[in-house]
Amino acid sequence: QITTLINHKDKPKRSDKTLQAIQRVGQAVSLAVGRFVTVGEAIANENHELKEEMSLACIEARRAGETIAKLTDVTSLDHPESDSHITIFTDKTAVVKAARLLLSSVTKVLVLADRIVIKQIITSRNKVLATMEQLEKVISFQEFVQIFSQFGNEMVEFAHLTGDRQNDLKDEKKKARMAASRAVLEKCTMMLLTASKTCLRHPDCESARINKEGVFHRMRVALEQVIEIVTDSRPNGDSEMSPISIYSGIREFKSKVEALRENLYFLSKENLSTMLEVVLEHTEDFTDSAYTSHEHRERILELSKQAKMELEQLVSVWMQAQNQKTKDVMEDLEVAILKTCQCMNELKREVHSAATSLAADLLKYHTDHMVLKALKITGVEGNLEAVAEYTCKLSEQKEQLVELCRLLRHVSGTEPLEITCIHAEETFQVTGPQIISAAETLALHPSSKIAKENLEVFCEAWESQLSDMSMLLREINDVFEGRRGEKRVYLSLPRPGKHNANLKALKPVKLDTEEQAKIAKLGLELHLLTSDVDSETEKWEDQENEVVQHGQGMSSMAYSMYLFTRGEGLLKTTQDLFHQAEIFATEGTKLASALPAFSAQVHDDDKPLLLFEAEKLISMCRQLQITAKASVQGKSATFTKVDACILKTRDVMTLLCQLLALCCRLLRKSKSGNGCLKPAPPWREDNIRTGTNAHNPERRAETFGVKTLENHVTNMTFLESK
């Protein structure tokens, strides 16, 4: 709105329509500022330490908004230039000045509000730490129950605050780090409960004490990491230095090599050689690993040697080209660039194959969890010798998995996935010794139910991380094969020459800021509906059910359309959106087609209702497809089509949410309580969307296991009964 005013062109003749439009814009700005300032003032009243600064910024913003409203109050003036009243026409610099003051004061309010949010998170963290100290020192079971109840409530508050903050983070790397830290807090909450109970039951047991101390330490580290991300700081002023991966090294090296086509002098041959040496040094992680196959090791060594030779040839031609830019020399340079890049691509492919094939083999080998099962059995038997034997095997397994995480990090392809690999490595490093100490405690006290429960909790954490590794492996393969991007949403972008014969003839259009603002409300409704649909699908025990899978796919696509309304995500143009709407409608039709078969599982009385809803869904999806395929010309018509597609998608999602709930309810009814429903899922930060049924981490952030924590708090009576 401000930009519209500033860019307004002075014309000798001004129609009533123009004058009214200018006044409306000025009033809109003033009203918007008023609403904004009201919120700012409310925040100021609740936070006395920043009240003065915030209040001043709000006063400045309100004053600037009112000034803009006065300067645009031009409708009553037949001849504004002859009137003593100053307007936008007589003094445009006044509008510019007011606009600058407004933007400055609004920015100040936002910065102060952000400081308050950060302070809230730090205060919440401090409360959690203080309560943790009390929990660590407690010696009475009754006192522990009371303090842990308080701790649970404080963790719920911390969960909400950090969940909102994670959603607000723009940096994908920080978002991934936050997700990893919060995942640690989720898993450690239950560990802290059982480890503390075990220590209270067996106060003289050294292994129980070590087990408990490990949990407390890990929670403190995770809390500190959250604060580092929130405040954008590092302890002792250290800068964040994550080790370079082979993928990122190859990517940077290739970009420099290809840049030689444009500029022969922008870097030295020594710099290029150093970059290659760094990449080849990292390949030693593969060639030195005991888990890399002989074939992969030989091939990586061979490609490393070839890369050096190709670079030598490239440098030779490059130096020659600097002296004489003849056609033959430049052609030789192009050939050398292509051969060098091809060699690096082959090296990248080989290390990817080495890491992912090892991962597939190891994960398959460890799916039976034989070592964990053996530890539980021998622990209950009190067989210390057998426990010692199996803890050695678990340590070997841990080393294998840690090595695997390091190799996968090299080929992860994106920074968020690199961080996920690092998080997985740390989890195996820490959880392995904790399982060992828990197993030793059980072996020393084989009749202890709480020691047995404690071992179960740590084993579950290990199994959960192994399950997450399978998901991570799929993600890494998807990135390598180009099936997904960093936003982790459903990918169904149009391909030239496919899907629609008119695609080539249509010019892709991007929405401008004003148009995006208009569809923002619809987009928000779509976002809320995707959350509702996801909640419904999570209630199903059979996640492989065809109805559930189609529902998850539709939710994922609707989420990518929501991102489009914000100018984010992988749908970059309106044509991308229209194609996505077509695919969404097709998926909805598939779901409706699956309902007749599904109805065979429900009572005969309920079938008509289900089939009636299926017909409604087919009709709505058909309408959406017609709208998405309709040909339009011009910016206005294109925007109208965008609005219609999102509106119809919203309506389909509303029906889908009702339909999923109905299906699950009918299935539960037909099974007479045998259960198609499962309890609310635990904290999961890495439910990443893969294919059609993945989940976007941005949207999972708010869950942060709040329900899990609240369950801990409400179930405290169990502790008292023990």
From TrEMBL:
Swiss-Prot/TrEMBL keywords: Cytoplasm
UniProt key word Chloroplast: no
GO cellular component: cytoplasm
UniProt subcellular location: Cytoplasm
Keyword Cytoplasm on entry: yes
Gene Ontology MF annotations: actin filament binding
GO biological process, one term: cell adhesion
SUPFAM superfamilies linked to this entry: alpha-catenin/vinculin-like (SSF47220)
Classification via PANTHER family: ALPHA-CATULIN
Similarity section: Belongs to the vinculin/alpha-catenin family.
Annotated protein name in UniProt: Alpha-catulin
Gene label: Ctnnal1
